[in-house]
Amino acid sequence: MSAPVGVSAPVFGSPAVPAFPSMALSAEAVPFSPGESDCSPPDSLSDAEKQFSRCAARLRALRPDCSQLREELNQLFDQLLSENYNRSCELPITIRPEDVCVLLKHTSGLVPLNQEHLVVKFCQLVHHLLNQLKVIMDGQTLDVLVNYTANALKQCSTWTHSDVLLALSTVVYGNGSLCHQLVSDLLCEDGIILQYSSPSQPNIELRHVALTCMANICLRIPGQPLLDDQYRSVCFRLFLKTLQSPKPPNTDDLFYCMVIQAALKGLQFCLSVGKWKFGGGEELGSVLAALKRLMFQGAPGLSVDWPEVIYPAPLSQYESLSPPRPTEPPKPLESPKEVFTFVSFKKKKRKSKGKGKKTKHEESKVDDREEEDKEAVPEVCGGGGDISRNDVESLAKAPTSFLYPFWKLNSSESEFSDIEGNAQSKLRVYQCRVRQLALHCMLAVVKAVEKRTLYGYWSSFVPDSPAGGPPSLTLLTIILKDPSPKVRLCALQVLSAILDGSRQFLAAAEDTASPRTSYTPFSFMLAAAIRELHRGLSLALLAETSSQTLTQVTKCLAFLVTNAPYHRLRPGLLSQLWKQIRPYVRHRDVTVRGSVLRLYGAMVTAQAPLPEVQLLLQQPENLGGGSISGSVTPQDSALSWRHRNGEEKSSPWLLKLCVSLVTQPREEQSDHEGAEGGAALEPSPVRLEALQVLSHLVRGYFSLAQSSLYEIGQVSVRCLEETDPSIQLHSAKLLEEFGTGIIQQYRAENSIPESSKVPVNQVVEFWLEVLSGPLNAALQNEQHPTLQASACDTLASILPQAFAQLPDKTQLMCITVLLGLTYTENYLVKTAAVRALGVYILFPCLREDVMFVADTANIILAALDDRSTNVRAKAAWSLGNLTDTLIINMQNIGVDFQEELSDMLLLKMLQAATRASADRDKVKCNAVRALGNLLHFLRHSQMTRPVFQRPLEDAVRALVKTVQSEAAMKVRWNACYALGNAFRNSSLPLETAPWSQDAFSALCHVVTSCKNFKVRIKSAAALTVPAQRSCYGDTKRFSCVWRSLAAALENSEDAVDFLDYRYSASLRHTLSEALLHLLSLGTLQDMPELSALLAGEEGRGIREHLIKYLKAEEGEGKTGGENEAGEERNSGEESGQLQQRLGRLQETLVRLKSLKKIPKPDPQLGQVLRQVKKASLESSSLLFLYCYIVFCCI
Question: Where is there biased composition of kind Basic and acidic residues (predicted)?
């Protein structure tokens, strides 16, 4: 059972109960655990515990037939209610939850329902004990208390129902799904809770408690089942109706705020259990409209006609101003342009260190911790506070007077008298709580609704810099204008959630050129919204003084930077932000410093390498971190960067900063960090973020980071020597990123000049230093398997050319450690070790070593039977690499290597790959790749052995089954490729094997019917592989393959997915190659069948299709020569390929002419022939020549 952690509702009409501060109703509250109070001596009991023990003993001794029962109960209830059981007392409370449950169960049998005063006090006691002690009730206690309160609602007078519902709300907190009968009775059409919570209920107290009870029923504690959808929908509609209803006349604002708070909590609980299930766009628009109105609850000077429903639209829906109310005198601080401004509520005063003030006893038990929302904003600290007002004005353009945060401006005049000020202050606290809860609900909506649906309402919550008219009320308005740091923090959390995952939506933004049309394109609107978000969040960054909120500002900026398409926007946004956040690197709050580094990390990963960021990284130190408007803060001067002799000037400023933060002592320390003997390093969170930024920098801008090869190696080695496993882990990841960057430089497809690459001798020195240091200890650190796995990944990132130059003992150490780690029980380590071996098997210096190949193969075969899917997936990937090595060795070394490798090992690999092809997709995709390589590698002498024949057939049928399956497209793509790879083995009995027909049928089916064009391309390529006519079987199978390829060519434009359309040209080219290949292999017996196919109805469609694309490719050929000179480097290669194609076509043409003459075509075909022949003389396109040859054969 769940713990009733308390409710935020004040208790009305209970003069006998002192108003103690209660705990806030929160699903995140930690349940009470008796073990937590063992720190106090057994004999040091608090007065509350002693009082509880005495009263509990006396209550348990009472019986229903006692003569003085009523008086005893009254006295004992008063004594128990007078104690404060909050755990925030001086001495910890050690009252056991089971003692409370026994007491309440026994007492419920002593209080008859006809004694209504006792019923009220007992209900108050239930709420008091369960709320303050956070008792986890057992099932029996829950049933007893639920039945008692439910019967009390039915039998007792209405005046008692407020306290009964309060007790019931505490009992059902998080247990709504366990109280089926109660929920059914209370939430039925004429249920008592629905009656009391209705907007037509005149008793505001009953309405509030009923809504609180309903909210607690909807709350789900982790581990508990969900409330039935029908009851949750009933509650949702009532909560929404409450939020939409106007305030009843003659109702106190304070009480009305509490009703709204209860409804908002209930709505939040309904939305926090999963996806949106409460109707379509109308309901969602109603919820968003109500929440947006309540986000601005209590805003002075705000007079807006709020819409009842917000509809999805790409354009902003501005709230219309209502006529000014003559009864409200204008405030002296407001100007006509500042109608939307949240002015300061009271004079702000700096507080001393103790923020948490002791709460006062009030008539209602309000959550007094909410008084923190009234506090003055803390003293400006760090780098962000020393920026002047002029700096803010330099950022703000036209609408800056609206966006500047006026909660920073202090009024020197008191607006209220003492009595009025106390009432107004209390109301502001409640209104602030309403705004906070509305934002919590909005956050739940953002998480529950699908992104593509939510972004239809983007313009209602995100500003888009309107050209004219009043500024819109958005989340940015709250972030800049609300006087409460908590509310601003909630608004930032909502905006962060909206921006999280918005990359696909924001990808349409573009403003590199001004729109030339009479309307504003949607792409330009999105770009304007991104710029407005940058400007508003930059103002918030400058003005914010609360460390928690400042941290959330930087996190929100990180979400924005991660998802915005800066390569499609005008440069400048990141440059301004880059300079602006630099002073905060030395902020005295650790979380702020860490979040700023995270923001730098987001900037260096945004569409890396981004030219704007590359220029920022290349700027000198004094320019790369210059402050805004030329002002230099004390924190700027503190960033001395610790220049060292011999340090290259080309190292990016950010890299040197991160190295400094990781390795150098902190120059300034905050109060809570202490100043123990000697200067201490930065706190671990800051150093971890700095290491992550270094990794991002190396990954995205390796050409700039490679000059600091030695320095990065030193940092990594030093961090690996530390005892903190997190620091060790991130330093290992940094080494992996650096090694991967070097490997990328040496890839054949990267045309990087040799002078720009890291020299191999420096790479060798780098890895020698790393491998001779603490990396070996990290590989053997069994206490931290994640670190071991990361160290394995680091070993796998060694450049193959550098590995070959390492000393033999170092190479042997790497191989031995990896082989040994594959026997560990931890799946993370085993996965990383198997993957590293899969990398090493491709190294030229290792792949020809038969012993290493055999050892690696045995390790991989054992890993393929592991119970972990991740281990099996990496084992299948490594097996694919190993079989790639077999093919390379077969081509380079020849039969000698094939004969040296064990036949039984090959058989085991074939059987293991066949079994893995029936595994999950992540295993299957590489298992079929290995099968294709193995079938290609097998010799004729092996395939004729009886022990190989059945596994060989099983392997081919596994590939056929995978091609025909509904697996992921990557799996089917690899299976088609594997079949084509197998067909390259001339020893494979394609003409006689019983599985041959199934293989060709599967490929023919896929090439015509698969939705994915890449799978079609690979299937067509596989059908082109057999080099002998006999491999295609008889004439019937040959013509079937021809017919399938012709049909695929005719349907090569029918793309189901628009993204596949870009592969249509490649598909047509491959199909043309395949048809030409079949034509070149065709015999005299095949020609009549092919001629009949071309002369029939199908042939007419194919001819029309070919002629259409003939003209299209002719046009492309004429414009192809107008490309820039940068593309001319491939002209020689393309010319060679063209000559090869022409040679094949000439051979095919000569061969066809040597066959028996086929009747000449009819006059219509003759005319087509002349057109195609003429086009073939003007262009060298393969398609033209192919058409010429085909029509010559008809």
Answer: 1115-1132
Q: For residue 1105, what pLDDT band results from cuts at 50, 70 and 90?
A: low
Q: How many angstroms separate the first and last alpha carbons of the chain?
A: 83
Average pLDDT of 869-887? Answer: 96
Encode pLDDT of 302-332 as tens digits: 777 788 888 887 544 445 444 444 444 433 3
Which residue type occupies 514?
S
- Return d(Cα 432, Cα 487) in angstroms, integer: 7
Nearest to 1181 by CA among 1142, 1133, 1149, 1150: 1142
In eight-state DSSP terms, residue 304 is E
Q: Give the pairing of strands 320-321 and 304-305.
A: antiparallel
Q: How far is CA 562 from CA 57, 453, 566, 602, 1138, in A?
A: 62, 21, 10, 6, 44
Residue 9 φ/ψ, nearest 5 degrees: -80, 135
List Cα–Cα distances, 227 to 171, 224, 276, 1151, in angstroms.
16, 9, 14, 77
Q: The whole model's pTM is what?
A: 0.77
Q: How many CA atoms lie within 13 A of 1149 on its CB side?
A: 13
Cα–Cα nearest to 2, from 227, 175, 183: 175
> Before 329, cis peptide (omega within 30)?
no
Nearest to 338, CA basis, from 326, 321, 325? 321
- The answer to whether the CB of 526 falls within 8 A of the CB of 533 is no
In angstroms, the CA 290 to CA 300 distance is 19
The CA distances from residue 168 to 56, 183, 184, 457, in Å, are 22, 11, 15, 38
**821-873 confidence digits (pLDDT tens):** 999 999 999 999 999 999 999 999 999 999 999 999 999 999 999 999 999 99
Q: How distant is the alpha carbon of residue 496 from its chain centre?
A: 12
d(CA 203, CA 210): 11
Q: pLDDT tens, 724-757? A: 999 999 999 999 999 999 999 998 888 888 888 9
- The answer for residues whose C-beta is within 8 angstroms of residue 686's C-beta and 6 or more apart is 590, 593, 594, 597, 661
